[in-house]
Amino acid sequence: MRSDGDNRWQSLAVERHDRLVSLGDGVGALARTADTLDRLHRELGAPPAMDRWIDALDADLQQAKRISPASTDPHLFRAALAVLGRRPAHPMLPLWHARALALLRRDDASADDALRAAKFSFEYAVRGGNFALAREIVTRARAHGADASVAMRRTWLEAEALEAWLAAEHGRARRAVAQAVALGAGYTAWEQGASAAISEGDLAEADRCLACMAASIERQRTQDIAHALFLGAARARLAGDNEGASERLDACFAQDATNVPAYFTTLWRLGRAHVDVARQRHRPAGALLGVVIARAASHYWSFLHFSALLSRAWLRMREKRTAQATLDLRKALALAQAGAYRNCDPWWDREAIDEIGRFLRDALPEHPAWSALMQGRKVAA
User: Fold this and answer.
1) Residue 215 above 90 pLDDT?
2) Cα separation, 232 vs 194, whole angstroms
């Protein structure tokens, strides 16, 4: 429930923004819009209140066309991450992504501005499944870390941890999490730590990180409460506790998703479907995977698309639909090869990987994308 204090600061933000617009202060209006979107994103996730501010952002940028990008881009990139969460199909996101990359590659950008642009462009690249670009962004951003503020370094280290565990470089992910925590990071760093540990199959470390997540959750962010339950379900599934995984997913979906980005609710559906396959609940699993695949394809969420195709291939193997399973695997591995994937979010459990690996040896032997995905994994096919 929204408090009177929440309503009051948002009303004040509207008044101040409108005053700046009436005064013809384009940069000031844009800064106010960016501040508001950034705060809504940090405090709540992707609430409906963002919609009026995204419209205001579009109008402010239109009015600021004649103003130097050096004056407007820092504000834009504070807002763009919120837009990515609330409106992932916003038509300007690709252009903003290109502008963020251009700023990151400049030598004269301030460290905080460079890392802010890097955070947005990194998230855009990850959700689009372009992991090679995500790694380039991490490499370029690292050069700015020493000169950035503590808050920006902390935030950026959380992104480094995500890139590392997606690349199956779990030691590097743990180091980035530890560095972020040493700088005062909380829930988000521990979330990456838990994800890395689950990906690696280290249940003791997953439990430690999940406990730290629980201790640092801000209760108004239902996205974080739900995602902690989702990761707890993944941990339970890895331990072979399908009932525990299903109970945690039920609790995840019981949370109010009003403020949650569609990317995360789609990811959670993927987890629900995977557990349904494991529990032999084939019909609901197939229906959910159809929804996930359609949404991932329409939003260009290539990594989720790949992961969902892999789970549906596993389902179709179990249903003895060999031709369809082979077709899904071909599509999934083509996406993995194009995106240079070295991991699968979120369900690298032994049962699924062993069954897919055995099937592949007969259907698509020596596939290079599968070999790359299996390199250095504790859970071997």
Assistant:
1) yes
2) 9
